[in-house]
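## retry 2 of 3
previous attempt timed out at serialization; input unchanged, resubmitting
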Amino acid sequence: MYHFWMIPSQFESIEAMSTSKKVITREEWEKKLKDVKIRKEDMNKLVMNFLVTEGYVDAAEKFRIESGTEPELNLATIADRMAVKRAVQSGNVQDAIEKVIHLNPEILNTNPHLYFHLQQQKLIELIRYGKVEEALEFAQEELAPRGEENQNFLEELERTVALLAFEDVKNCPFGELLDLSQRLKTASEVNAAILTSQSHEKDPKLPRLLKMLIWIQNQLDEKAAYPRINDLTTAALEEPAI
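## retry succeeded, writing output
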């Protein structure tokens, strides 16, 4: 006689069999990896792309000599770009603006958001050093007209000027504007704009490939147990979890 109470347990057994992961040994996995052929020239270009995009001028020059890989950009322009980035990071915004104009005036002429954010950062620096009257005058003359043309600009301007209403600006609701992260954010935006003006990608390819590796591993985890790379700094394979 067939017992209906057996049906759930049978279904569970079938489901377990269908969802069981394939186990790939380290030996099998390493063999598959060796079968993948990557040209050294392509790897060198990937490294050079990272050095150029991130602005490591000296390292890029040494790598060029040692590997024979030519950079995608003139290394002199990298030094100029890094000078702009350092100026913003140190709070010398006017110096950064002048350097950008010297490098390529069209960068600011064609990018109103970038120019506003640089001016906003300049206002933040005036507030940081307690130059209240100068900050108010600068906000009214330089930033207010732009705020009238763009609602987003106006909201950002209001948040920045609101810093003046607090004695302890660093602990006020808008205190994050005075954090180093705000300078870094603006510097990153300038760096990306300069790279774009030079017909170069604003982000290096290597980090994107590493993110893709993590995504692929996460997808593969659902179907197989295999030697995984958990530490991207060493790329060491770890034994599959069974």
